[in-house]
Structure formats: C-alpha cells, structure tokens
Amino acid sequence: MEKENPDNPLIQNLKGGIYLGKKDMGNARASFEKALAIQPSYFPAAANLAQLDVQDNKPEMAKKRFEAILEKDKKNSQAMAALAGLALNQGQKKEATEWLERAMQANPDILQPAILLGSHYLRLGEKQKALALGKKLQGTHPKEPAVLDLLAQAQLANNDKAAALESYTKLAAVQPESALAQFRVASVHMAMGNPSAASDALKKSLAIKPDYLAAQLAQIAIEASQNNYEKAIATAHQVQKQHKSSPAGYIAEGDLMLKQKNPALAAKAYEHAFKINKNPALLIKLHASLHQAGKSKEATPRLLQWLKEHPDDASTRMYLAEFYLMNDQPKPAIEQYKVIVQQHPKYVPALNNLASAYQQEKDPLALEYAEKAYQLAPESPAILDTLGWILVEQGNTGRGLPLLQKAISLAPEMPAIRYHLAYGLAKSGNNAKARKELEQTLASGKRFAEMDEAQALLKQIQ
User: Fold this and answer.
1) In the CATH scheme, what is the code of domain 379-462?
2) Separation of alpha carbons 387 and 251, rounded Å
3) Does domain 311-377 have CATH number 1.25.40.10?
C-alpha cells in the first residue's frame, strides 16, 4: 500500500478540512499553514485560512494571504476574485470592480474571470457594461453556455426581452438536457406576456426534470392566470407528493383557494404548510385566511403566542397591529405599535400608525407620534396626511390644511386625503372649496374607509 505523502499540499488541505468539520480550529489552521509552506501559491489552503481570518474579524489578514499568492503568481485569477469578494464584503465596490477587471485583463484566454466580471456588473446595476461584455464574449465564444446565460441576463436588465429570448433559446439548443435552460426560456415568455409559449417551455423543462419545483410553481401560476384552477390544483398536489419536506405545494394550493374565494380550504392548506416550515410569513397567511373564513378568534391567539415566543419579530407584530387597526381595535393596536417603536424608535410606518391609533382613541399622544414621523419623513404623503388630519381634528386648520394640500400634491389619487382636506376646509369656513374636493373625490368612484362620512359632509355643506 502506497504511503501517504505528508509533503503534498492537497493532503494537508484535506486534513485541515477534516479538522474544520470537527471544529478544531487550531489544528485546521496548522494544516492549512503547512499546505502553504509546502506550496506558497496553493489557493485552496489560502482560501480556507482567509475564511478563518474573516470569521475572526481579521479581513486585512485574509487580504494579505491572497496578495501573497499574487506575488508568486501574478496572473492568479482565483486570488484576484477572492480579493474582489473581500472588498465587496467591506462595501468597497470600486476596489472589487478593479480586481475583477484586472483578473480578466491578465487572463484573456480564460473565460471564468470575464463571466465573474459580467455578473458583478449586473449586481452593481451597470447593465450597459454587462451587455457590452456579454456581446464581446459572444463574438469569441458563440456557443458557450455561461456566455449565453450572461448575455441573456444583461439583455433582460436592459429590457430587451426579444434579444434575451433569442439568447436563452440558443442556450436551450446548446444544452438540450438542461431543465434550467428551458425554464429560462419560459421565464422570458412570461415576462413578454406569452403564457402559451411559456407553458410549452415549462413542459419541456418538466419532461427533462419532472420534479423541478420552480417550473412546477410557474406552471401553477400560468394555469391560475387563465382560470384553469383544476389543472393548477392538480399540479400543486403533485408538488406536495414530490416535495414532502417543502411547504411550496401547500402554499400554492392555499393561494389558489383564496383566488377562488374559499378561505376555509386555503387555511387548511396553509396549516399543512406551517407544520412543515414554521415561519412568520406562513403564519400571517394562515391568520389572514382564517379571518376571511370568520375565525379570527381562533387565529389571533396563535399570532400572540408566536410573538410571545419570538418578541423581536417586528414584521409579524406590525401585521397584527395593522390587523387590529383596520378592524376598529385601536387599543390592542397601540400595545403592539408601542413595542415596535420601543425596539425600532425611527421606524416611520409604526410611528405613523401609532399616531392614527391614538387619534382613534382621542388621545393627545397622537400629535406627538405624528410629529416624530413627520420629522423623519417630511415628504411622505401618508405622514403628511396623518399629521395634517390630526391637526385639523384638533382645530389647528392653519397648520393642518397646508400639510394636507402638500399630501394631495404628492398623491393626487388618494381619496381619503381629499376627504380630510375637504373636512378641514369646511371647518375653516371655506365650504365652496370643500364641496369641490368632495365632489371630485366621490365622482372618482374609488372606495375608501371614510366614504360615508364624506357623503354626509357633502350633504351638510350644500
């Protein structure tokens, strides 16, 4: 039997990996260091050591490791890409770009650095640079899958869907056994509003990979958009059987049941999904469907229990507070908003809604929280409306009306704001302008919570 060579950097690196698995960081470091001592330009060991450095909050040490490799091997694209990654992690986008551009320039005959650079451009939103690079690479590598994929992504980013479809169609021809390639074709057809062509591409994708979840969910969406609910539900049931550890099939079924206005069956599906994956988004879906089915008394205690177990879950607490507020329960809404504001003092939506809840309770604290929200977001129509409305209700039309007028200038299609302005105008004695605002609001046909009050005010001032 051949004896293991301790002077092989690969062997030392593998040993380091084993120690890492055992969380023995000391021996892991020692093995990786030994691999580099044997071969100073051995990238895998340097990458492992750099990862440990980053975990120890020593990014400069990690950087030096890759720079040391470049001293030995000036064209090492892996080291340059790693340096770009470190720069990105520290928010240094320009430096990251420079490293990736340098990697491509130093290795013009290697495709990978150019692909990394193109993807980087897309992440930064530099879509024109990504497109130019994609077209350049296509000229030298016309049938390379990675190039076609990059080019199609860049074309989509530049809103050239037809060109992206052509590129993805070429990719599917180059990779006839790729379910992903067919899915990409389907995605562009969907973006172009071609559900029939998208469905055909999805069928090809699923013929290659029958349990391809993304394609199945896209297929469900297409069937639902065409009101083919039986086919959509059948696919959802298939997903449930093929992906037992995923809630996706039950979520899809729940969503389909809601579209068919059957919240009780939707809740049943969401309940299954929540058992598989207990996450707040699913709990919110479950609560909303139970509420629609008339079972709020059963659903709300579950949200309260969840928040007791997960007190920092601000999104679920915000949902519950809004639920209370929309269902004319300002007191429990106030309790929830106060917790959010304690945890996140500058969270404007919570401050604004807390002001509205206090306003419903005729509590003078309403003005205090509305002012806080206004200081943080003085150009928000919703914030201007809340503060202006509170001031008007409190009799301060002199300050309230200009705020409401500004809110309308920023959001002219919001009928509730026009009603608040009309109310303030009437209160200040300007019935003519108030009538004009009310007539315009009610003529729009848009429904809003205070529509009855608006109609009553119009009758009163005519």
Assistant:
1) 1.25.40.10
2) 39
3) yes
